[in-house]
Amino acid sequence: MRSPDTPPTSFPPDGPADPVGLQNFAVLLRRMNGEFNRIAHEFAQAHGLHLTDVQALIAILDAGAGPGGPGSGAAEPMTPGRLRRQLNLTSGAMTACLDRLERLGHVRRVRAADDRRVVHLHYAEPARELARDYFQPLARSTDAARARFTRAELLTVVRFLDEMNTQLDTLRS
Known about the structure:
By secondary structure, the chain is mostly helical. Helices cover 59% and strands 6% of the residues. The protein has helices at 22-46, 51-63, 80-87, 91-103, 125-134, 136-146, 151-172; strands spanning 107-111, 119-123. A hairpin with a 7-residue loop joins strand 1 and strand 2. Helix 2 crosses helix 4.
């Protein structure tokens, strides 16, 4: 017998009034994604970047965090090839993007110590400070939202977001 806290293997059909129904999740996720995109566009415009540049910066920053968070040891440094695949860019477009970001002081290309053919991409500290200052209001809003939930609820949210990202990764294949 299943406990009331165990998620069902499938949910019954839902309608617009169901707060945990697929339709409501889709609307809320699209709305949040739209706001994140708006903020990324504004950052790009304010700093003379292309949206692709901002997406690259986010990917480079997140590569340092890995699934277990910063310092978990689960992360691998971002490489141009991995970034190109993640952003679905041509080699030429990726090179142009990285050249722009390096010229503007946002990223550094560093050869791997164990294999000089491998290039790792690092978020430059001045760019990190610029982003930290710009996105501080978003960080405060996120923290205010988190403060309204218990640790157990947040662990459920994290589990859901992690599973969503896993599912989205399978769509890429």
